[in-house]
Design brief:
Elements lengths: L4 H16 L8 H15 L1 H13 L4 E5 L3 E4 L2 H7 L3 H10 L4 H5 L5 E3 L3 H15 L4 E6 L4 E8 L2 E7 L10 E2 L5 E5 L2 E7 L2 E7 L2 E13 L6 E11 L13 H13 L16 H23 L8 H4 E6 L6 H12 L4 H11 E4 L10 E3 H7 L1 H21 L4 H7 L2 E2 L2 E3 H7 L3 E4 L2 H11 L1 H6 L4 E3 L6 H7 L2 H11 L2 H4 L14 H26 L8 E6 L8 H17 L8 E6 L7 H19 L7 E5 L5 H7 L5 E4 L11 H7 L3 E4 L5 H12 L1 E2 L4 H10 L4 H7 L1 H11 L12 H8 L7 H19 L2 H15 L4 H13 L11
Parallel strand pairs: 1-4, 1-13, 4-12, 13-14, 14-18, 18-19, 20-21, 20-23, 21-22, 23-24, 24-25
Antiparallel strand pairs: 2-3, 5-6, 7-11, 8-11, 9-10, 11-12, 15-17, 16-17
Helix pairs in contact: 1-2, 1-5, 4-19, 7-34, 11-12, 11-14, 13-14, 22-33, 23-24, 23-30, 26-33, 27-33, 29-30
The structure holds pyridoxal-5'-phosphate (PLP).
The site of pyridoxal-5'-phosphate has 13 residues, from helix 7, helix 25 and helix 26.
Length: 813
């Protein structure tokens, strides 16, 4: 496209004139962004077409990753990076008077996800393309992504995230590839030449229109597709006259109901969202996605018995589970297959990732709702259930208990996880501990029935975004020290271990961390007008707000530190800056109350001159991918403090590790695997183990009130939540929090782990006093983080689950 900066400048200025009729002097930052984006988007058009052509000609097996969420964030910087054009564009823009960072800020975050699950999908797409796999994303083009969070008077306020307000330079609307999705109606059964035929009549028809986003691989002309579906009305206005004078209002109603399908992302991170609209969204994704997958497959002119050899459909959590009955429906009703063949094909095509052990997050739909909205699909689910339960009773004639435990439809509820397991050939958890807990507890009967289906694939993160793009200084230092091989083979980061005691290297690591901290400090100063000490420990907890993630334990501990400082103001302390970022689901009142508490504590602490220089607390609003990229490279300490057994994997933990932060954490999720590599020398472990937590749940034996009564530090901070004192302005301000701990017996063991947490934190102060030793630990962390690159994760999915190999796009095919 543009191999050097001069060619870049020429192309850029030409585009500016031809597209916007502007000279460089007249252009705004927004103009520059738009032109740069369009330039990149167009320049990869050929590679995009060639990649697709190569897949077709080579008849490669293709993976379709179905996910209700893709938290992709901004694309400009990453696309430039993967195209190898980052430096050219940066230098060229500088000549034209612009900084690339400023231009990147013009791009709205594509926040089409809630948190970890959606971000995982985005990291996977980057790895699939960079490793040259034929793997695509299939999702919904929500008009509004996850809400934008504002903090007003310490409270979370949600604003709509109108990310498409300015046009999206990356997407390509493909009206010619639209498909029809049908809702409602009645099923009519008839006989046709000895075959039973099912026709759905009086259905409502909706167009699903794909918007394709190119997914550019790293330094290879390999471009996959993220296909995002948008709902559009399909009623023909020219026919309205015939239908009578009320038809216009009917049209308006219909129009609104259609548009709403792809209007909003549900802002629930976990927990069951019982909305009809949500079910509609799920089916919309499954039906549209499958139709387009099968259209591509049809071009091969192969029998459907070969579908599993050419197509893998992966479902990211249970949200797209309806692909199973929908594929059955298409094979039986439209392609003429019998039940057994259709079931065999479906079963060998679909694989499923489980993301949660929280029982409230296991999806269930009222059977009536499914039956009414999707009558034919419901019939198929019923038949799957009938056959599955029948098979069980045949094998275990006196185990009616087992049958009701694992049935897909039970007590008028459709259980999506059960359907996903029964209808797929692979079920994976997302970290070793998580998978074991699935097998041993939550999904035990299924594991006993289908042990060969269960496998673990520990999550990963793309080191291209989270290190090369977010922390380019560190990335360059690594390449200078161990060469650039780690970029393609992230395990080579292990070579850094030999530098861990090298004092010159330590100095460089520390100096890069400091400059990242200064940059974050400048951002905070500009946003909030608060100055923070770049030499303090930057102690960071950024993630969705949830009881099990225990932001509450963190802030209670901060309150305790404040109390300590106020008691003995003259005592020496290692200065700390606590940084929080978290969105709470809008209806999750306890979580919102914790946000308020963090903000109140921040206000008190930051204004208190006596603790100034020792303690600061920040809540950064609107945590998102682009904010994460600013915060994580500046962190010294990563808070991964969930109640053991609750966090399926976590990926935030990996991002921090890769950027040289040390972790204070419980033995939960992927922390367990981090600890296996790092040991006590390089990670700060504390708290209950998952077996202990499980034992408490099973056998009882924990009383939060006992801890409260016995530990005066805890009593003091708990009382400060509800009685007048430094943090509480009116009684009951934080009553909900107080009750959740003392009246509802502290479901997440905040008080139980408090002491262990506080002691470990005190140890961290001591460790920080030895900067060399800290730098050694930091280097060891970075060295082992290659293991968590999503490249490694995707290679394991590719070989163990999908059975796919990299494709070399041949030129001139
Ligand atoms: C990585 C990431 C998450 C997931 O963080 P966890 O700590 O694993 O919960 C959530 N949100 C954003 C924006 C992220 O980048």
């Amino acid at each position: 496209m543009f191999n050097n900066k001069e060619l870049f400048k020429i192309a850029f200025k030409e585009q500016l004139v031809s597209r916007l009729g502007k000279n460089i002097e007249e252009a705004s930052a927004g103009d520059i962004y738009k032109i740069l984006g369009a330039l990149i988007r167009e320049s990869i058009g050929r590679e995009w077409a060639e990649t697709n052509q190569a897949y077709k000609v080579q008849e490669e097996k293709q993976v379709y990753y179905f996910s209700m969420e893709f938290l992709i964030g901004r694309l400009l910087g990453n696309n430039l990076l993967n195209l190898g054009l980052l430096e050219t564009a940066r230098d060229g823009l500088l000549d034209l008077g612009w900084s690339l960072e400023e231009i990147e800020e013009q791009e709205p975050d594509a926040g089409l996800g809630n948190g970890g699950l959606g971000r995982l999908a985005a990291c996977f797409l980057d790895s699939l393309a960079s490793l040259q796999y034929a793997g695509h994303g299939c999702g919904i083009r929500y008009k509004y992504g996850l809400f934008e969070q504002k903090i007003i008077d310490g409270h979370q306020v949600e604003l709509p995230d109108n990310w498409l307000q300015k046009s999206n330079v990356w997407e390509e609307r493909r009206a010619d590839k639209r498909v029809e999705v049908r809702f409602w109606g009645q099923v009519e059964v008839r006989e046709d030449n000895g075959r039973t035929v099912f026709d759905t009549v009086n259905y409502e028809k909706v167009w699903a229109v794909p918007h394709d986003v190119p997914v550019i691989g790293y330094e290879d002309p390999h471009v996959n597709t993220l296909r995002l579906w948008s709902a559009e009305s399909s009623m023909d206005p020219s026919k309205m006259q015939i239908e009578g004078h009320n038809s216009y209002y009917r049209f308006l109603d219909y129009y609104r109901s259609v548009e709403s399908i792809s209007e909003f992302l549900y802002p629930d991170d976990s927990g069951y969202e019982g909305k009809l609209l949500r079910l509609k969204q799920q089916y919309f994704l499954c039906s549209a996605g499958l139709q387009s997958v099968l259209r591509t497959f049809d071009k091969l002119e192969l029998p459907y018995s070969e579908l599993p050899d050419k197509v893998a459909v992966h479902i990211n959590d249970t949200h797209p589970t309806l692909v199973i009955p929908e594929l059955m429906r298409i094979l039986i009703d439209e392609k003429g297959y019998g039940w057994d063949d259709a079931w065999d094909i479906t079963n060998r095509t679909v694989s499923y990732t489980n993301h949660t052990l929280l029982s409230e997050a296991l999806e269930k739909w009222p059977a009536n709702m499914v039956r009414e909205l999707l009558p034919r699909v419901y019939m198929i689910i019923e038949e799957i259930n009938k056959r599955f339960c029948g098979m069980l009773l045949e094998r275990f004639p006196d185990r009616q208990d087992l049958v009701s435990q694992v049935a897909i439809i039970e007590s008028d509820q459709v259980k999506m996880a059960h359907l996903a397991i029964v209808g797929s050939y692979s079920v994976n958890g997302v970290a070793g501990l998580h998978t074991e807990l699935l097998k041993r507890n939550v999904m035990k009967p299924f594991y006993e029935l289908f042990p060969e289906r269960f496998n673990n694939k520990t999550n990963g993160i793309t080191h291209r975004r989270w290190l090369m793009h977010a922390n380019s200084e560190l990335s360059h230092l690594i390449s200078e020290s161990i060469g650039t091989g780690w970029i393609k083979r992230p395990h080579q980061l292990l070579k850094l271990e030999s530098f861990k005691d090298d004092s010159a290297f330590q100095e460089q690591i520390m100096s890069i961390k400091r400059s990242n901290k200064l940059r974050l400090a400048a951002y905070i100063a500009q946003k909030q007008g608060i100055t923070i000490d770049p030499d303090s420990i930057f102690d960071v907890q950024v993630k969705r707000l949830h009881g099990y993630k225990r932001q509450l334990m963190n802030i209670l501990h901060v309150m305790h530190l404040y109390n300590e400082i106020k008691d003995t103001p003259s005592a020496d302390r290692v200065p700390r800056t606590f940084i929080f970022g978290a969105k709470a689901a809008p209806g999750y009142y306890l979580a919102k109350s914790i946000i308020k508490l963090i903000n109140v504590v921040a206000d008190v602490v930051n204004k208190d001159l006596q603790v100034n220089g020792k303690l600061k607390v920040l809540f950064l609003e609107n945590y998102s991918v682009s904010l994460a990229e600013k915060i994580i490279p500046a962190a010294n300490l990563s808070e991964q403090i969930s109640t053991a057994g609750k966090e399926a994997s976590g990926t935030g933990n990996m991002k921090f590790m890769l950027n040289g932060a040390l972790t204070i954490g419980t033995l939960d999720g992927a922390n367990v695997e981090m600890y296996e590599m790092l040991g006590d020398d390089n990670m700060f472990l504390f708290g209950l183990r998952s077996e202990e937590v499980l034992d408490y749940y099973r056998y009882g034996g924990y009383l939060a009130r006992d801890v409260y009564g016995k530990d005066p530090r805890i009593k003091r901070v708990m009382d400060q939540l509800v009685s007048s004192g430094p943090f509480c302005c009116h009684e009951r301000e934080f009553g909900l929090i107080y009750q959740s701990i003392l009246d509802h017996n502290d479901e997440f063991f905040v008080l139980r782990d408090f002491n262990s947490y506080a002691e470990t934190q005190a140890g961290i102060d001591q460790a920080y006093l030895d900067p060399q030793a800290w730098a050694t630990k930091s280097i060891v962390n970075i060295a082992h983080a290659g293991h968590f690159s999503s490249d490694c994760t995707i290679n394991r999915y590719a070989s163990d689950i999908w059975d796919i190999r990299p494709v070399r796009p041949s030129i001139n095919v």
